[in-house]
């Protein structure tokens, strides 16, 4: 818990939440409710923030350095013309593929094994030992040895796979370790970028250009770091769908030709995600490993008006969580609690302790716990809080003195003036937690008499109000609690001035 000066402001906040709530039935199964913010790992570029900044007229030279510390942005000749190998399809032993024109089947040394007519569909089957069978519906069967098959276009402009996606350029078929028979699309980085579907084509020009530069940098770096692998990149890196009609994004790629982001002369790992929820993350706090100088936690006030800034509540039963954990090899016995107090500088969950009757297991907040729950039905973030059912006080109990904290910095209070050294947000907590209270908050900028409209909030099931990312410079905030069904007649008002 961060140090707080005990002054009259604390007393005022204590008086804000004197009410009780009805406890849950003792017979009900324990539930865990997640509320949070952001979508994705929150390392590097926040795409929700990019959209907002671009709509405000900022360009990539202004946006990119905000998220990537100490970088240089500029053109490097030949980047877009260099080739990238993108994994696009895989199957256990065989798959079909169709070219819309003529093409050739070649082995690893470039020898032509077979030429195929326009529109031919073939089935590629791996027979083991580096040998493949190529079977055409109309032109017979051939065998290719040497560990790989290359499909070289002549008049073919695209190859179409069973999932309906089509790709330009050459197709290479390989069998990487433990991945089955795999199709790899080989084409220029410029063409590859135009097949990405990371964001809508309707985005503002500056946003699409920012995305193009970040994607180009990420892809180019992967061609360097994965040069000895069977392919450079897959859809866990960038979302590549092949042939796509997106004229605005294609123009953004062309207009930023060869422009990449470098740090001390080398292309960076230009990580980005959907929304950071108000603060990006240090890379080492998400995936471990050593710190990276340009992937540092940074405040982001640009994403607060965009979808995914806040989400929830998402509720899971105890038995459902136990089943999810077991499916990922974590069996702690009967689940007792989930401790998420280990947080990063950005306020995200760094590591979580899953506590059970058999043992306690520590997992990463995003790459493990957040990702496990992304499909049930979708936490997919490391900025979250958890409320366990039955943790609210019984009727008639009074809360003990409240505590005030921020997610990323010390909070200094002087009467009714709150000063945040490096602002990320204000969190008002009560202990024990008081849940589901309606709180109204409005803001007035210093020097302007008129108040803004009230915004309605409900306290988190653990009894706090979190204003992460909503704290503006030199403003007055009024917190108003009108009472609710469980404790009628309460009228509490608190006015706080926030300075930076």
Report on the structure:
The protein is of the alpha+beta class. The chain has 4 domains: about 120 residues, Sandwich (Immunoglobulin-like), CATH 2.60.40; about 140 residues, no CATH class; about 120 residues, no CATH class; about 90 residues, no CATH class. It contains 9 helices and 32 strands. The strands form 8 sheets. A 6-stranded antiparallel beta sheet has the order 4-15-14-11-6-7. The chain has a 6-stranded antiparallel beta sheet with strand order 10-9-8-5-12-13, with no helix packed on it. The protein has a 6-stranded mixed beta sheet with strand order 25-26-32-31-28-29. A hairpin with a 3-residue loop joins strand 9 and strand 10. Helix 2 packs antiparallel against helix 5, helix 3 packs across helix 5 and helix 5 crosses helix 6. The protein is globular.
What is the helix tally? Answer: 9
- Which oligomeric form is depicted? single chain
Q: Distance N terminus to C terminus?
A: 21 Å
Count structural domains. Answer: 4
Which residue ranges are poorly predicted, with pLDDT under 50 across at least 5 consecutive positions? 1-26, 392-434, 468-473, 483-492
- Which structural class do you get from the secondary structure elements? alpha+beta
Whole-number mean pLDDT: 79
Shape: globular
List how many beta strands DSSP finds: 32
Summarize the structure.
The protein is of the alpha+beta class. Strand 16 (259-263) and strand 17 form a beta hairpin.
Which keywords apply here?
500 residues, alpha+beta, Immunoglobulin-like, 4 domains, six-stranded antiparallel β-sheet, 32 strands, 16% helix, globular, disordered N terminus
């Amino acid at each position: 818990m961060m140090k707080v000066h005990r002054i009259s402001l604390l007393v005022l906040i204590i008086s804000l939440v004197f009410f009780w709530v009805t406890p849950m039935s003792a017979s009900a199964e324990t539930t865990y409710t997640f509320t949070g913010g952001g979508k994705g790992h929150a390392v590097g570029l926040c795409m929700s923030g990019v959209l907002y900044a671009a709509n405000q007229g900022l360009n990539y030279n202004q946006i990119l350095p905000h998220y990537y510390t100490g970088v240089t942005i500029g053109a490097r000749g030949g980047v877009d013309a260099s080739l990238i190998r993108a994994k696009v399809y895989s199957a256990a032993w065989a798959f079909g593929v169709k070219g819309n024109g003529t093409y050739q089947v070649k082995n690893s040394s470039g020898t032509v094994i077979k030429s195929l007519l326009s529109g031919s569909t073939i089935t590629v089957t791996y027979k083991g030992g580096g040998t493949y069978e190529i079977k055409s519906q109309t032109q017979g069967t051939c065998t290719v040895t040497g560990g790989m098959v290359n499909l070289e276009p002549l008049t073919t402009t695209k190859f179409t796979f069973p999932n309906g996606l089509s790709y330009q350029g050459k197709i290479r078929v390989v069998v990487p370790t433990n991945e089955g028979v795999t199709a790899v699309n080989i084409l220029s980085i410029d063409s590859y970028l135009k097949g990405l579907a990371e964001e809508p084509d309707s985005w503002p020009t500056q946003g699409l250009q920012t995305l193009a530069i970040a994607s180009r940098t990420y892809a180019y770096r992967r061609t360097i770091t994965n040069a000895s692998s069977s392919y450079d990149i897959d859809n866990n890196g960038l979302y590549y769908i092949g042939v796509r009609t997106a004229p605005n994004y294609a123009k953004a790629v062309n207009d930023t030709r060869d422009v990449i982001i470098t740090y001390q002369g080398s292309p960076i790992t230009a990580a980005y995600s959907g929304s950071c929820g108000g603060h990006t993350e240090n890379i080492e706090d998400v995936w471990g490993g050593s710190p990276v100088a340009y992937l540092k936690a940074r405040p982001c006030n640009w994403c607060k008006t965009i979808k995914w800034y806040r989400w929830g509540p998402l509720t899971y039963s105890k038995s459902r969580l136990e089943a999810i954990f077991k499916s990922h090899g974590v069996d702690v016995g009967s689940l007792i609690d989930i401790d998420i107090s280990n947080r990063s500088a950005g306020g995200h969950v760094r590591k979580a302790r899953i506590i059970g009757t058999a043992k306690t297991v520590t997992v990463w907040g995003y790459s493990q716990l957040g990702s496990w729950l992304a499909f049930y039905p979708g936490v997919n973030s490391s900025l979250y809080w958890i409320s366990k059912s039955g943790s609210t006080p019984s009727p008639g109990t009074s809360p003990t003195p409240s505590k005030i904290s921020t997610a990323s910095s010390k909070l200094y209070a002087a009467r009714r003036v709150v000063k945040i050294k490096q602002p990320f947000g204000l969190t008002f907590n009560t202990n024990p937690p008081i849940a589901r209270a309606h709180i109204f908050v409005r803001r007035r900028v210093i020097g302007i008499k008129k108040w803004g409209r009230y915004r309605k909030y409900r306290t988190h099931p653990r009894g706090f109000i979190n204003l992460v990312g909503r704290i503006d410079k030199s403003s007055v905030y009024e917190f108003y609690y009108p009472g609710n069904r469980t404790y009628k007649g309460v009228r509490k008002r608190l006015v706080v001035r926030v300075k930076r």
